[in-house]
Every structure is written in C-alpha cells, then in structure tokens.
Specification:
about 35% helix; rod-shaped; about 240 residues; four-stranded antiparallel β-sheet; Immunoglobulin-like; 8 helices; alpha+beta
Length: about 240
C-alpha cells in the first residue's frame, strides 16, 4: 500500500531512520505527491544545515552548561537513531528544535556556521580619498611639550578639522581655534582633558567658518588664554 502523506514519516525518511520496506513505500509515495516532494527538498536543506553539528555533539552532547533545549534535543536524536519503536514520534519536531536552539544561540553551531572560512579573503573596506586641498601637519610645542596632529579638510567656504592632541594636563578646559591669515580666529571645538586623555591623548573633530584658502594655523589654548600648541597649516 502506498504511504500516506505523513510529515513525521518524511522527516524520518530524510534522517535515514526508516527500514527498507518503509523506504520503498516512501519512494513510491514521493513519485506521485508534489507536496511531499517540496517538503522533502526543504527537509534535506535543513538536514544539510544540521550536518554542521560536530559528531562529538551527537555522541556526548553539547559542552557542559550548554543550552538545555539543545541538550534535550540531541538526546532525543541519539535515542531515535538507536531504535525503531519511537522513530515516528521523532520526525520534524526534533529537527526543528535543533534549528531553533542553534538560531537562539546555543553555541554549538553558531560559531561554526557563521565564522568566515579561514581560506576566504574578507573584502577590503573602501576608504574615500581626502578632497583636494586637504592639509595634514604635526607640531610639538617645545615649552609646553603638548603635541598636535591636525587635518584640515576644505568645504564650501568653511573647513572640517580632525585633531589628535596629547601632552595637556588632566582637568584643563581647552578650546580649539582655526586661525585665518588676517589673524582672526574661529572656534572649532572645546573639551575638558580627561585622565585617559592626559595619559593617552585625545582625538577630536570640529569645524570652523574660515575659508579653506585663508587657513593659517590651528591652535589649542585653555579658557584662561594659555596656549598649549599651535600647528601651522598654511599652504
């Protein structure tokens, strides 16, 4: 007699848990059932994914302390593969539970399934080149020992700035000014030097309403007017 449409039996068929007679009956049924054929393709794709489970997981279970759902499911898988009496109750439910456990972060498969292959080269990030007219300069003040590397990027009538600043004591309240050729200044930012900033330096972004072609220098001073470092950037 031809096997009836049975998702559970189909799951056991994919996992190789049927005897020879049941396999023949399922083959006959699949030859005339388009719905089961489609389900079979989906189950085989799932089975290929489950094939990522390490053999030792099937033998000994997941690592101690692993996800309880995954542990219970693997125990059921082992039991079903070891006997025929309960295989019709195994079917799709156990396979779906394994997939759910993996997707929810059980840890046995996640790293293996998502880690890039060691032989596969990762794409190189694309970095846009700096616009024409960008200026980069570094200077260390011999008196204060403060140092700054500054990049000035031209925009439409103003400039963007990026500063890497070190050598300024913790707690200093500082301002950054972009100085024009005529001596006028526009503030590009301000900050308080943290303990980490005093020890490792600080990186800041800013902007100032100074025409790019008129920029002469970038200066850092505290709110009392003490200058720590000035970097000439005039083209």
């Amino acid at each position: 007699m031809t096997t009836q449409h049975d998702p559970q039996l189909l799951g056991a068929y994919v996992l190789g848990a049927l005897d020879e007679q049941e396999v023949r009956e399922m083959d006959e049924h699949l030859a005339s059932c388009a719905d089961c054929t489609r389900e079979l393709e989906d189950l085989r794709a799932m089975e290929a994914f489950l094939g990522e489970v390490p053999p030792e997981a099937m033998l000994d279970g997941p690592p101690e302390g692993g996800d309880l759902l995954l542990q219970r499911t693997l125990r059921q898988v082992r039991a079903e593969r070891g006997g025929v009496a309960k295989r019709r109750q195994f079917a799709l439910g156990a396979a779906a539970a394994v997939v759910a456990a993996v997707v929810l972060g059980a840890g046995v498969l996640v790293g293996k399934a998502t880690s890039p292959d060691a032989t596969t080269a990762l794409p190189t990030p694309t970095v846009a080149p700096d616009p024409a007219g960008t200026r980069l300069a570094t200077f260390t003040d011999p008196a204060t020992k403060a140092s700054m590397t500054v990049k000035v990027v031209p925009a439409a009538g103003w400039v963007r700035t990026n500063m890497a600043i070190s050598g300024i004591p913790e707690g200093e309240k500082c301002r950054i000014f972009v100085v024009a050729k005529d001596g006028s200044r526009q503030e590009a930012g301000s900050w308080v030097v943290s303990k980490k900033g005093a020890a490792e330096g600080t990186n800041l972004d800013g902007s100032a309403l100074v025409d790019p072609k008129d920029v002469k220098s970038v200066v850092v001073e505290n709110f009392a007017g003490r200058k720590f470092v000035e970097v000439p950037v005039q083209a």
